[in-house]
Structures are given as C-alpha cells and as structure tokens.
Amino acid sequence: MSHVFISHVEEDADVALVIALGLEQAGFRTWCYEVDCPPGPSYLLLTGQAVEGSSAVVLVVSADSLGSNQVTSEVVRGHESGRPFIPVLRGIRHVEFQTRRPDWRAAIGAATSVRIPPEGAGSIVPRIVEGLTALGIHPGKGADSARLQEIGRELDELGLPESARLPGRQAKPAGTVPMPIEEEAQRPAPAWNLPPAVWRWVTRSHVGPAPILGAVGLAAAIGTIVLVVLLLGGGDGGSSFVIFPSTPGANTPTVAPGHPTSAATTARPSATVARTTRASPTAAPISTPTPDERSPKVLWRLKTSYSLSPSSPAVVDQVAYIGNTDGVYALDAATGEERWHLDTGHFSAPVVKDGVVYAGGTDLYALDAATGEERWRFQAGGSVTSPAVADGTVYVGSNDNYVYALDGATGKWLWRFKAGFEGDVVGFSVPAVADGVVYIGGADTYVYALDAATGELRWRHQMSDRTPHVMVAGGVVYVTEWLNGLHALDAGSGEQLWAFGTEGVSGMEGPAAVADGVVYVGSDDGAYALDAATGEERWLFRTDGWFASPAVVEGVVYVTSDVIVGNEYYVYALDAATGEERWRFQTGGTIASPAVAQGVVYIASGDDYLYALDTTTLEERWVPERPTESAP
Predict the structure, then answer these.
(1) Whether residue 627 has a cis bond before it, omega within 30° of 0
(2) Could you report the per-residue pLDDT of 245-265, keeping only the tens digit for each?
(3) Cα–Cα distances in Å, from 130 out to 112, 121, 133, 206, 564?
(4) What CATH homologous superfamily does 3-227 map to?
(5) Of 569, 552, 553, nearest to 561 (Cα)?
(6) The pTM is what?
C-alpha cells in the first residue's frame, strides 16, 4: 500500500505528527519527515521520491510554510506527479494562502481545504480520512503498533509542557447517547493493542486512551496558539522586468533616478498602552442571528470559468471589477454580463481610479477600465498586494520585501522601501494612504509609516503578529491582528492610543472599517462595533464563524462569515447603531468582503459564483444549490 505524504515545515511538525498519528491509527500509511527521513542521505532526494511514491499529499499551509522553498518543491513535485492534494490550513484562510502563493493554487487546483479549528489538528483527521476515501484511497489492514510508538516518541520530543496537555474530547458515533461529563471521564478504554510507549505518552497527557486523537489534537491547538504567528501579503512603462540598483540596507528607501533623495529615519514610538479594553459579556448589547427566513433578491449571479478565489469586487460607474484566479473580470453591474476579461493569472482585489483598473497578483497591472487594454505592467521580485492609489501614485507591497511607489500613468517606479526582514519571512498587508503618508503592515510584525512622496520612514511600531492589517481614519491607524485584536495608533507618531481584545480564540483578520465615529471589525466570535475614540465596545453580533472585513453604507454594516462547522457561509446586513440583523444571505463557499453600490451588494464566493443582491427587495431565503447549477 502506498503512503500519504505530509508536506510541512519544521515549525508545523506538531500538526504533521498529529495528522500522521491519526491516519496511522485509521490504517493509512504516512510519510512524515520527522519519522521517515534517516540521517545521511540527501533529504531532497528522499522527499522527492516519497512524494512521487505517495497516493496523496496532505499539505500543511501556514504562515511559515508559505515562504518555504522546500515545501514549494514538494508542491511542484506532487503536481508534476499527478498526486491529489488535501490542504490543511493552520492559522490562515484559504483565500489568503491563494493570494500569497498563486503558484501553489495553480498546482493544487480545486482541492477543498480544511482548517484546523480550536480543538486542534486531531479533530480534523476524520475529515482527512473522508477525503482520502473519496479520492479512492483506502486504509490497510490496521494500525502498526511500532509505527504508532515511533510517532508518539517524536511527539514527546517536541517538549510540550504539561500545562498544554489538557484532556481532549472524542466525537461520539451517530446514535450514541451523550453521557454526563463526570461519567464520560470514567468511561472504560477500548482494548487497543497499543505499545507501552504510546500508553505512557497518553498517560502523561492526562488523557485516557479512548480519546487519544482528541488529546493530541488539543495539544496541537495549544501549540498552534503558542507557535503560529500569522503573516496574518520600475520599468519603462512596458512589461519588462525592472533591473534595480544595488540593494540598499533595511528600512531604507531607494529613490529612482532623477527623484529627490531623503534620509530614512528609524525612530521608534513608545510601546506604552494608553488605554486597553477587553470584551465583556455585559459591557454592550449582544445580538445573535435571527430566524428571519428572508434574504435579498438575487439580481444575477455569474459562474466563473475557473475556480473562484474570492476577492472583494470594486464597483464604479455601473461596472463591477473582480480579481480571480484566472484574471480580472469587468461585468455590467446591472445584468452581470461580461464586458471584458483579462486572462493573465491570479489577481487580488482591484482598485479603480480615473478610468484605470489597478490589479495586483504575480505582477501589478494597469488596465483601461472601459476596454481592459493593458496600459502598463510592473514586475517586482515577488507577487504584490492589492494596491492603494493616491494623488496619481500607486503603492504596493511585494514578497521581495519592498514597498513600491509607482507613477500611476506610466508604471515607472518612484521609490522603494526595504523592510527589515529576510529569508522565509515575506509579505505585506494591503497599504493605506492618508495625508501624505503610506501605512503598511509587514511580515516582520511592524507597522510602517512612510512618506508618500519620498519613501522616508516616519515611524514604525512593532505588533505581535505577522502582517498586521491597517486602515486609517481621522488621524488614527487601526491595526488588526490575528491573535491580538485591534489596536489604535496615532497616525502622526505611531503611539498606541488603545487596544481591544475579543472573546474569540483566533482574533481578527482583515482591516477594520470606520464610519461616524465607530470602528467595525470582524473576529472569529462575531462582528464588533467599538467607539473609535476610546475603543469601548458598543455592540457585538455573535456567530460561530470567522468574519471578513466589513463594509458600512448608509447605516448598515455588511459582514461575511465563514462557519467551519457545517460549512455555512453568510453575508449579514446589520443595523450599524444596534447590531441587530436585518437579513442574511447564504452561499456555498467562503465570501470575500462585500462591495455596495446603489442599494446592491456584490459578493464573490468560493462556490465559484459572483452575486448581485438587491437590498431593497427581501424574499424567501435563498438556499445555495449543492452542487451549484447554472446561473439563472
């Protein structure tokens, strides 16, 4: 029987070993570097052979693995060998990994990913088993006790503290009557013929043998919280690759020939927290989804010709522009009819300014908004973020660790700023520009404030997570972090004004939105409204899913939620003042942040459809087809 290859980086060894343990216990054979790569021979040769000899590849996608050349080579080898992939997401969303690694996206194809929930990696093993079975890959005769012992020994060597080895829960089979917690704790263990070393490992984890996979999974979840820090991003006017001058030092702007130079500064703001607030169940009104069976009328929906990588659309002059895995689409906002499509590879959310569509991805493109004709293309040393455009200048961050300023008319670079990180730590968040300053979060955990005209460093403020998201309003930079909530920084000095932590486990993702003195932000436990000046919580709309960045229009907050359990995906319309639900709409896949124009909400979903929803007409709740049929 062939094996299942588990592709991962060293930082994700705990997850890989937990998955290997679960699959081995289920009767599958696995290949995991920590167990199967002996000292001496070339690991490059051994891993390549192991990928080619596998029946499937489980790919652990994390902030660390996204920058790994070794994992990339394994992805390429798996693709060239025709092996199916099962992506496992650790502390990162599917759309984020697609945006940062479009080459992985192309190699993996339409494979459905599975995210590690707070319960840990062990809890997703049944889903991986289900996926392997669906691929026609079946287990052997049973578990190999010696193999289980070896994997258990590797887990021991990871050195998880006793405090992290908490009891886990094992899912009960269908039809089982739930037992009280006290009674369940005394349930007799099944007579598994496990070796002594594995029993000792289970005992030291304070868990009985019955829930061994749940215990390992929860330990991995604690390891995830401790170890994972999320990432969470000129030419001559033509399409040629730009050859730059000699590489400058970190935190130094490079100015294009003929552009005025200015010295960079590295002043650090005070890290003192002026005000910190925390969510409290009684601090503000809490809303929950209502049983209302109405949803907005679907004006149109368009199925894309290629698997959709959801990104936020831009709607300008009755045209909806959307970046996708197979390029940029321009659609009639009223009918959904395609006006033009540029098929040049993956693109993130586009920005439309003065008749030009600026779209980032592998390269940065400037396209005529009416025809889709390419005006110029800029190629950096890595993929680029969605752009920010201000005063005729386009700003992007790149995976080559530079922030670029480009002339919006010609694409020629004006300056570039090098951040202080190297190696596998790469990427930026989408930049924000206000009052002559560019704000951007880096994979080195810093928020940078750069002079928009020269690239000079004004200040930088160190956060806790990689690639914090930024937005600017009213002289304040609002920074969202995956594990550490929302922070308000003074836009002029970088000094922290206040911070807010949620009740959720994983924190916030995507930039916040600000309207009428209120900050709206999504977390894994709901959508929050906070006082922009103080950080005090005004209301919480609670669900079980991850929320993308909200949009606020005319007193309504539009947020999207990805509920892992049950694979439920919604866009909600909430009253901006109270947080009460007005309506919700369900799709068949992860939904990007919505765009709203003239009473119509435009969303891109992971079910490969673009939707236009009429918010003025509510009707019987829409239920997505599975699988989705042709669009009406």
Answers:
(1) yes
(2) 333 455 656 665 444 333 333
(3) 12, 15, 5, 29, 16
(4) Toll/interleukin-1 receptor homology (TIR) domain (3.40.50.10140)
(5) 569
(6) 0.60
